[in-house]
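Two proteins follow. First one:
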Amino acid sequence: MSVINVILSGGVGSRLWPLSRKSRPKQYIPLFENSTLFQMCALRNYGVVDKIQVIGSVDNYELSRRDLENAGIKDFDEIIEASPRNTGASIAFAAFSAQPDDVLLVTPSDHVIDGIESYNEAIQKAVALARENYIVTFGAIPTRPETGYGYIEHDENYDVLSFKEKPALDVAQSYLTSGKYLWNSGMFCLKASVYLYELKQYAPDVYLAAYNAFAKINEGFLPLEETMLIPPLSVDYAVMEHSKIIKVVPFDFDWNDLGSFESLWDYMDKTGSGNSGRNLVLGSSKHVEFIGVENLILVETEDAILVVPRNQTQDVKKVYERLEKEQPELLK
């Protein structure tokens, strides 16, 4: 009965454009003393699990291999998706490849976590619950009325009651005041057989199509034709919002999903890893002066410049979506 860290690495990091591109999403950018988020994730879990498994895209699996090699991790498995079909199917592929009683620790590859002792304690609690046939999610204890995260509602026994989408500010404040909500970290811990049972019960179309695609896997590569028949449902919609066996493990270690330039700024301020001052410049080798303005972020790459107010960085995704239609070459 192994514990397997399933690293999901297929995201594109659209809210960190133009730094994050399809050819090198944010988890592969060496932002932290020449380390990438993907490397930090793998190294963080390497000592507490029995195996590393990467679920990645045909577009970035070579980046994953390079990062693992540079991190000194040679023993890992990989499943390479022909096209992204969301996390419901990705976790199913990992479960199909595992033994029924194996515990899967499912982690995104783009999180920053500090406080490794507290992190390891949370993992141990989650693994114990997973072995009791619960599906376990991890919830960060909120410190502010954050509108950029989803929330998990729980009772006094930490049974999950509901999942909430990213709220408006007043709703986020009510969540914070109630003490019954945690930030949804997007990390999970579950037995392979339990996940597949729940997926088959609540999203049978995803289960069957993922099973048919996995049946034709060839040296780690999934087939395109069968993959495109998989409904693109997230694990939240496919399983988590329906299952009656979900527990949440609350945590207070430092966690940041770096989903926006604002969260990157916050992290750099907190750790002293950047000199942001009243404005923040990323990616530019030029000297930049700001006059009469504060809380602006300037991002420069070879082919693009982005200027965005600190409190509007979630809207970068809208720019990404527009460019996908109008100038897709700027996303490569």
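Second one, unrelated to the first:
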Amino acid sequence: MKILMCTNGQKHAEMAIRFAGSLFKFIQPEATVLSVIRKPVEPSELDKECLRRASKILSDFGIAPKTLLREGDIIDEILKESKEGKYDLLVIGSRGYSDILAGVTEVILGETAQEIIASIKTSFLVAKEPMSLNKIMICTDGSPSAENAIHFWGKLKVLPQPKINIVNVIPEIYTRFKDFLEPVSENQLAMFGTLPGKRTEYLYRAKEILARYDIVAKVKLREGHAAEEILKEAEYDYDLIIMGHRGWKNEKKSTLGRQARRVILQSKTPVLVIKS
């Protein structure tokens, strides 16, 4: 796997690189660390130092990256390198909570990161305040995009495996379930049988895919708006959200589905988006 990691020497960028190192160390990827210089001048020692620090972070995980300095517009150069280098994954950091505006509670995703994830053709990881990897959420709606994301996780061969919940969101609950206020657990799904039909099938198919990689997972059904319910579920101490870039109907024309975009913008948790 070829991974492009971006750094400007700031804390959030280096946290993203460290998180990526801990996540991908098991497959020993071909990694490149990129820094973009805005002005066409000789790189300063500061520019070189941020690349050295990034390399040192990755060396702690047994990854020996290439380093690369490009000149020009940050967004253009990251997208250009991603395409020309034929990378499988891009890693970018996020500033997380605003430390500038008092009283701001929403997670801030910089304009640069937003433009990149809206245009990039490869899979990407947006690392927001990353923590140790103890619990992850894999989102599915039965789409090929979602199942590609499930296979991606299986191939990473992470050890020890974190606790995994596979989550699907149904748009409305059936009348017989209207009194349930909490998310539907795996035990409840077994009790309910086939209702609500295809959605339980999607969950158990996802679980079976992970079983092929010797990964045990639990399933969870939520009811409501897809992005809202994923964000609510993420409040239960998840360390990573994994999802496909398209799904939840009527999103096939967009480069990045509306639901995925909203989760990325508002989640406090790192988000890994897999593109086929």
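SUMMARY FIELD: Residues 245 and 256 are 5 Å apart (CA to CA). The domain at 135-274 is CATH 3.40.50.620 (Rossmann fold).
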